[in-house]
Amino acid sequence: xxxxxxxxxxxxxxxxxxxxxxxxxxxxxxxxxxxxxxxxxxxxxxxxxxxxxxxxxxxxxxxxxxxxxxxxxxxxxxxxxxxxxxxxxxxxxxxxxxxxxxxxxxxxxxxxxxxxxxxxxxxxxxxxxxxxxxxxxxxxxxxxxxxxxxxxxxxxxxxxxxxxxxxxxxxxxxxxxxxxxxxxxxxxxxxxxxxxxxxxxxxxxxxxxxxxxxxxxxxxxxxxxxxxxxxxxxxxxxxxxxxxxxxxxxxxxxxxxxxxxxxxxxxxxxxxxxxxxxxxxxxxxxxxxxxxxxxxxxxxxxxxxxxxxxxxxxxxxxxxxxxxxxxxxxxxxxxxxxxxxxxxxxxxxxxxxxxxxxxxxxxxxxxxxxxxxxxxxxxxxxxxxxxxxxxxxxx
Length: 395
What we know:
CATH architecture of the largest domain: Up-down Bundle
Largest sheet: 3 strands, antiparallel
Distance between the termini: 53 Å
Strand order of the largest sheet: 1-2-3
Number of helices: 16
Number of domains: 2
């Protein structure tokens, strides 16, 4: 199951980093984007070379053991090097001095390969064993890998946390926090090898395959880093879908209010029977307009003295402060509907201040959702009818 997940996340990672290169080729320096792509390709390939599928491709035996183990560690180091270089390039642009870090990374990779070759690993069952004479090189191999990885990833983690903490809310900040989680998973994935070093030093043998926790952390690393780095590519589509879902939920939540007003003033319906023909967002916009049209059509039936009495009653009844305005709106609207049905009219009083001046559709819809919730919770239409248009008793 974990291996299958790792396969799919690697594919997603490759696709995501490739799309990011295409998307940002005009807005970001080519060097910066190639560094990002190099990170994704290295870390995803580092997982793939350790999977059974690669063993089946190369064939079981010493050749696979050497290629898979050495290539896996080298690709992890390469991924870390690309990640650090990408961060420097993003912040310093053309002024970033990448050569020193590239030299350190290259020297570490060469030292790792030398230690690995001198350790002369041998496969015995599901374990790799070393002779007493080559054991120091095997331990040195692991220590070099751990030191470089943990120091580089630790610095990278601190930098991403600081950047995410100070970033403005939005896709950039969300992407940075996803990168923080991904780098944190990479730190944990690397740190998991500490126990292998201890076991290697004590027994001169080590597991030849990635264990379950290591595979989980590897999959998490690829998934979170790919998601964070490519957030700008898929967040607009996701935001669009979420926007439609939110619009439809608001559309349904204000339905009790709209239904009552449409029954009282049938002419407010702009296109009866085809409410959702233009999509959820347009339907919500139209429903908000229809509710406001109904409110205007009933303006002669609003009792100017009712809002103050309804507010006082709401406070006596213990209605939450945040719900009082919506409750008053629902009470006065219910009373106006009943007064309009009975033909009772009121002299206009002092105009009530608009609670949402210059509000957009989303803000207006959110307000009407609150009014509709109060309407539905208290059954205000029926209670106003029973009271002959008097203020209904608030909950």
